[in-house]
User: Fold tRNA methyltransferase O from Piliocolobus tephrosceles.
Amino acid sequence: MRGLEEPGPGPTTTPCGCVKPALETGNLLTEPIGYLESCFSAKNGTPRQPSICSCSRACLRIRKSIFNNPEHSLMGLEQFSHVWILFVFHKNGHLSCKAKVQPPRLNGAKTGVFSTRSPHRPNAIGLTLAKLEKVEDVGQASFKYFQSAEEAKHAIEAVLSADPRSVYRRKLCQDRLFYFTIDIAHVTCWFGDGFAEVLRIKPASEPVYMMDPAGSLVSLGS
Assistant:
């Protein structure tokens, strides 16, 4: 890291009078891509060091308005164990800062702000390394009883392997669809000769109209 340097040239226009791009002038207009929530809702009691409370958890919610297809932005992220997060110290309370600060670790002694992790700095930007536990779509409903989608998948497979249909449906409704609900998932499936095919899974909160056994069966191709 270099020491003190004179500021660079200040013109924001090119010789021809054209305005320089914002990246060249250093004037950046940023927009938050998401917001962090943690188990610590207030400043008091929040550990300064991550090792103090290693079991603490936080959630980063990505704003869906950033992209036309926000779900694509997280593809592949689950392959990593950690992520770097740039954030803004929006709770500073004021924008002023001092060249020297008194960090708690020095018990009142002053030192340069750039040798500390003080949030009160010229640009109130922070950087943290966070362990990534999971990536999930919060737009999808969470299971009430299963701990993961994989666990729910195994449960559905177990139900289908036992063929939950009644004797009546096995013999007289072989060409009809079969429905059942497990946890919050409403499953639509079809049984063939020695196999079962899942056609659709949707949240059980969506209305499913089944007036009677005959009305709950749909012919294939209808």
Notes: The two ends are 70 Å apart (CA to CA).
